[in-house]
Amino acid sequence: MAEKDVIIGLEVHVQLNKLNSKLFCGCSTGYHDSPPNTHTCPVCLGLPGTLPVVNRRAVEYAIRVALALNCAIQGETLFYRKNYYYPDLPKAFQITQYDFPLGLGGAILIRGEDGEEKRIRITRVHMEEDPGRLVHAGTIDRAKYSMVDYNRCGMALLEVVTEPDLRSPKEARAFLDKLRNILEYLDVFDGNLEGAMRIDSNISLVGGERAEIKNISSHKGVEKALAYEITRQRSARRRGVAQVQETRHYDELRGITVTIRTKEEAHDYRYFPEPDLVPMRIADWVPRVEAELPELPDAKRERFVVDYDIADDHAKSLTSEIRVANFYELVAKRASPRLAAVWIADVLKGELNYRDATIDRFSPGHMVEILDMIEKGKITEKGAVEVIRTILDHGGDPAGVVEAKGLARAEDDAVMEAVRAAVEECAQAVADYRSGNEKAINFIVGMVMKRTRGRADPGEANRLVKEALDGAGGA
Amino acid sequence: MGASAEDAVAALFGKIKRSRLNAYNVLSEDLALERARDFDRSPWSGLMAGVPIAIKSCISTRGIETNCSSRILSGYTPPYDATVIERLKEEGAIIVGKTNMDEFAMGTSTETSYFGPTRNPWDLDRVPGGSSGGSAAAVAAGEAPAALGSDTGGSIRCPASFCGIVGLKPTYGLVSRYGLVSYANSLEQIGPLTLTVEDAALVLDVIAGHDPRDSTSADTPGGYLSALDRGVDGLTLGVPEEYFGEGVNPKVERSVWDAISKLEELGASWKEVSLPHTKYALAAYYIIAMSEASSNLARFDGLRYGLRLGADQDWHTTFSDIRAAGFGPEVKRRVLLGTYALSAGYYGRYYLKALKVRTLIKEDFERALSVGGADLLVTPTMPFPAFKIGERIEDPLSLYMADVFTVPINLAGVPAISVPCGFADGLPIGLQIIGRHFDEVSVLRAAKAYEDATPYHEAVPKEVV
Ligand SMILES: [Zn+2]
Fold this sequence. Notes:
In chain A, 40% of the residues lie in helices and 19% in strands. Chain A has helices spanning 56-68, 169-185, 219-238, 286-291, 297-308, 312-319, 322-332, 337-354, 364-375, 381-394, 398-405, 412-425, 427-434, 440-451, 458-474, and strands spanning 6-15, 72-73, 76-77, 80-83, 93-96, 103-111, 117-129, 133-136, 146-149, 156-162, 197-205, 211-216, 246-251, 256-262, 272-273, 280-281. In chain A, helix 6 crosses helix 8 (337-354) and helix 8 (337-354) crosses helix 10 (381-394). Chain A starts with 5 loop residues before the first strand and ends with a helix. The mean pLDDT of chain A is 91. Chain B has 465 residues and is an alpha/beta fold. Chain B has a single domain (5-277, 361-458), classed as Alpha-Beta Complex (Amidase signature (AS) enzymes). The A-B interface holds A 42, 45-54, 81, 83, 85, 87, 90-93, 146, 148, 268, 270-272, 275-278 and B 58-60, 66, 68, 73, 76, 78-80, 82, 177-182, 185-186, 212-216, 291-292, 294-295, 298-301, 303-305, 315-316, 319, 339, 342-344, 347, 351.
């Protein structure tokens, strides 16, 4: 439900995890399966005397994102120091663009609560470095000690900040899904990696102060936390308790938000320009980066409708994830594009969702084979679904599965033979049919299916039995 | 061939160990002797092949403790070399040890060191200047033929002046700062302290040049040594009126005027110039330096390296205790003042204003050194010679005032050298020669011409044994 009194704005931290190296040093970004503190160097550990050097590729990626979000790109990059003490921050300051964002004033379209396209404004996009990660021995409030892993420290982050244009938890989720989709299209981001996206949500009821819910990593989590928070703020209002400006933490296990600090405790981060970095003129980069921007989801969706002559709903479903869109295009080149759209958007995606799997689990070649068998009538639609499920669950290839499971649609001769035999066998049913009981034909068709062990197409069998009976009657 | 490198290095360590100066706080004797033996076995080539050099304790050396003369970093041994150290090693130099300094380079006297003050070889009761006092004293007393220092507001030139040697602060961006433990990033440079201008040019040739690890470093052609002997004929010297008069020791002033006359004799001409914003330089300098320092020094919490006290408490208590015990009073003063200056509500009144003053000062220098104006400026390095240990340490403001002729140069980012130009009651006096951005060549050739025509650099302090 779109809720008129709900105001939501998001601050999304996006890790540019498709870069090869971190934002200010040469450390590799592929730390996700590595032991703690193995992807570090003197620079990202902030050892005395080390200096940051901006990864130009990271700036290019940031420009790519800002352009895709329709932001205006600033003429030069400028970095600030945000000073605060925390064990995961080895320099005791974070280098961030904060007050001088690279991109300003963008917008993207999402599907709103009413089903219509809705424009969500982007306030700004800025770059900053990721801190390390604390690992607590036990729960955060009871741990005897904590450990720090600096592998993540210095990863390039983008902060994408929206205007308070979202009106429901569902819209917030739609925005996040769309943002992730765009980022993956831009090839700057892999949303499947741990910690790839972290979201701070600002939520208030009209006329009330806002609460900021910090650091949720799943889109579903954001949706749930916001739903809880709306209920909480409404009930507080009913009880006459005013919402104060505060920061809250979402407890995923209990499904509730709890307060961390109120405004009075807000930090003074003592921002000042980072003296170790010189401004970088990026105005000249923009035309090239813009020219190299890949096709984005909305454009791809329109092109699919035109080029492949498929339904808009199918096109939307196929383009909602770059991997699926690429998969579809590979298949559509070698099979009927319309048939491919139906089978990928309606069947394959559903089977994948059910298994919580991504499209990487299925080979486009196998899809082409399956579509080919459907088109040539070698397998039934039911059989095709069975082939897809079997491959997803047990592996193998379409031809092998058809063979092993005996899913090949019976040859016409065999079906004709079965029809003849069934008509002979079921004299009573034949008589009933001829005396006007049309339903009696189902019994005969059932016999045909039984004799062909299900390989006959039921519709086809029905037609042939009818033909046999009507023909015989006429003779 | 003369004595082996091993013998020379061993003799140097003998001298250092007999010394009463406290010029070093870490010696890398084993590494140095091993390297000298390697050199004797198969001598390598390089601009500084086999030459021992002392390194200020705030420059990172792999495997050699780099403590910035602070308790909080005692025992910290970096896993990496500063770019200047890599370059020295590539050219064959041998690192002797790390020299004493004011804690985190915050001082003008080397008295704020956790390891006690360094003494001036010309008078053991006096300070060597600071903050690179250990480097200057070591070179002046023959405990190292050359040293590296760092200069944030005069920290190379002041001790060079007080110890009667040559000290060069290069143009901001000429020498990589990668590996220099930051005090005030936007002001400081690493530079040489040596007995002669020629040695300074040699060391500069080795350490200068672009470094991809320092975004503020510039690409320059170098070639300082080869440009030394061009003399001063045709150069115009500017004499800034604000650098003479009140507050300047008359003997210092006399020596500097004598030096100007000498340079005139050698073919230069001179004229008076004005740097009208000089009076705001100290305030702007200290606000900028302390603000940057408050951020730079926040990382020292004992968590990853450095001081650790007994049993750990919770994070906030533990790091607060470590910082309380690990920093000396001058460092705490500057961190607190810098934190204040950057705070919400004060940032515009202090930090931003200081940056504006800095721009005005830079413009002063650009005007005075513009084409058609002066090629170089000459001034006293310090308003007075070395003072007594303990004389000013309780009065921070009077110590800050001592930097009045050196800090404007850092604010402007221009190069400046201090060369010996006389004595006042047996204590050395320094002449400061200031050049245009990246015009170290003119600075060095004027210094060399002056040095060739005067005997002051040959004087030997009495503490040299
Ligand atoms: Zn690193």
